[in-house]
Design brief:
By secondary structure, the chain is α/β, with parallel strands linked by helices. It contains nine helices and seven strands. Helix 4 links the parallel strand 2 and strand 3.
């Protein structure tokens, strides 16, 4: 089995197990909420939106309260798209559609969307060259004066978190074997070469400090299943007011075309 098949099978299986739940893409609902909230800040009423790597559509549907004209979600997992389509059919959700697609070769014309965004999608590509290909495709299908948001996991904050975990003899956090976290320096250099205008949004650092470091110092993590530790919710609520420090593995590059 090659790497591409392994990654695709991983997400197909997640879809079958978790159906329309947020668990299909990730169990940490608090980071998912932070991702949704951050992206929603850039959605304007009447806009045409592309969600690249939409999984089962859980997050895509949450953006409808911003009243866009349309949202199209694409994902390379057919099973994810099946459950996304089932969700909007059962809940009679309008102005949103889902289809199978590959970020490396999007099936849309140039300058189609006002806003294109990814959420933990580029990290599923096996190398930097393919990640750059995906970024270029997102830029291509986005209108002039539009916005591209790359909401992804990054390597440097992982190293920073592991550094402070080491001080307290905590085991290091690791990437999943189907992920290749982006390097912030590589992405920054790439965007600078394109002469792109962008900003970096650190929307999860306080939450990560609480849920990936302090939590293990002040609670017995074995007492809680998954991400149910109450520390997580406490620091999620703090995160909505304060952030910074570059400890957040999940960050967003907001690119202005």
């Amino acid at each position: 089995m090659n790497g591409k098949d392994f990654i695709k099978e991983t997400w197909d299986n997640q879809a079958v197990v978790y159906n329309t739940s947020h668990w299909a893409s990730w169990g940490d609902k608090y980071v998912i909420e932070l991702e949704i909230e951050n992206i929603s800040n850039y959605i304007k009423e009447g806009a045409d939106i592309l969600d690249v790597g939409c999984a089962n559509g859980y997050s895509s549907c949450m953006q409808l309260n911003k009243k866009p004209n349309s949202i199209i979600g694409v994902d390379f997992s057919e099973k994810m798209i099946e459950f996304a389509q089932l969700k909007i059919k059962e809940e009679k959700i309008n102005n949103i559609s889902f289809q199978v697609g590959d970020i490396r070769q999007l099936q849309f014309e140039d300058q189609t969307f006002d806003l294109t965004y990814t959420t933990r999608v580029l990290i599923n590509l096996p190398n930097w060259e393919e990640q750059k290909q995906g970024i270029n495709e997102c830029l291509r299908v986005t209108k002039s004066n539009g916005i591209v948001i790359l909401s992804e996991a990054f390597w440097e904050p992982l190293i920073l978190l592991n550094s402070i975990r080491t001080i307290k003899q905590l085991p290091p956090l690791v990437e999943h074997d189907f992920n290749r976290y982006l390097k912030k320096q590589k992405l920054t250099d790439f965007l600078n070469q394109l002469q792109a205008k962008y900003e970096i949004i650190d929307f999860s650092s306080i939450y990560y400090l609480g849920s990936r470091f302090l939590r293990e110092l002040v609670t017995n993590i074995e007492d809680y299943e998954g991400y149910s530790n109450p520390i997580n919710e406490i620091f999620y609520n703090i995160e909505k007011q304060f952030s910074g420090g570059d400890f957040g593995i999940q960050q967003a590059y907001v690119i202005y075309k």
